[in-house]
Write a structure and sequence with these properties.
Radius of gyration: 19 Å
Order of helices and strands: HHEEEEEEEE
Structural class: mainly beta
Shape: elongated
Oligomer: single chain
Largest sheet: 8 strands, antiparallel, barrel
Helix content: under 10%
Number of strands: 8
Number of helices: 2
Strand order of the largest sheet: 1-2-3-4-5-6-7-8
Distance between the termini: 37 Å
Strand content: over 45%
């Protein structure tokens, strides 16, 4: 969590608030743009009072960016995220866990233009993350169990990426993202999970309809 907060503070302290002259073409390229992204990386998955392990994360994002000015914008999106990990117990040996989330991020974005076709973009915001399915498999015990509707997590997240504008309608991006759950609301007696220290690569494309 400290990493996320430090990153958020650094963004607002050190990203320039006033940039050099922007071209009207760049603003037109992003105005009203939709985006599709994929991501993959690592994180820490914790089941309350049970285990805390490293996890592989992957997923995809569909969203829309709303331009406020040449420097600032707001983005809203829906994401699918999967976290996979394995953990061992004395009784059952190694268990393989797969958690599937739906996430709804809202982020504020600052953009610094670097030439006519390239920009550096930083986003900071919050996410609502719903754990809709969790599956545990154990080959030794021939076990395959699935739970649904395990609750909601609230998280903070940040992205930093380079964006290349192919033309007025299409852009490509490459970057990094991070996120961490801040607190959870479990669904009844369900196991409570938290996902923290997520660091992932992002690839994506933006387009104007």
């Amino acid at each position: 969590m400290k990493t996320i907060y430090k990153l958020s503070i650094a963004i607002f302290l050190f990203i320039p608030w006033v940039s050099s002259a922007q071209t009207d073409d760049t603003t037109n390229q992003e105005k009203g743009a939709f985006f599709v992204r994929s991501f993959f990386g690592i994180g820490t998955l914790e089941a309350e009072d049970v285990f805390k392990v490293n996890a592989n994360v992957s997923g995809g994002t569909i969203g829309k960016e709303f331009i406020l000015s040449d420097l600032f914008s707001i983005s809203v999106a829906i994401e699918s995220l999967r976290a996979r990990a394995d953990y061992a117990t004395a009784a059952s040996g190694t268990n393989f866990l797969s958690n599937n989330y739906l996430q709804f991020p809202v982020k504020a974005t600052i953009r610094e233009q670097i030439g006519d076709q390239l920009s550096l973009t930083v986003s900071v915001g919050s996410l609502v993350s719903y754990l809709y399915a969790s599956r545990v498999e154990n080959v030794l015990l021939n076990l395959d169990e699935k739970e649904t509707g395990l609750g909601t997590n609230f998280a903070v997240g940040a992205d930093i990426f380079m964006k290349y504008y192919l033309n007025d309608a299409i852009s490509f991006m490459l970057g990094l993202r991070t996120q961490a759950d801040t607190f959870s609301i479990s669904d009844g007696g369900s196991q409570e999970f938290s996902l923290t220290d997520v660091y992932a690569f992002e690839l994506g494309v933006g387009f104007v309809l």
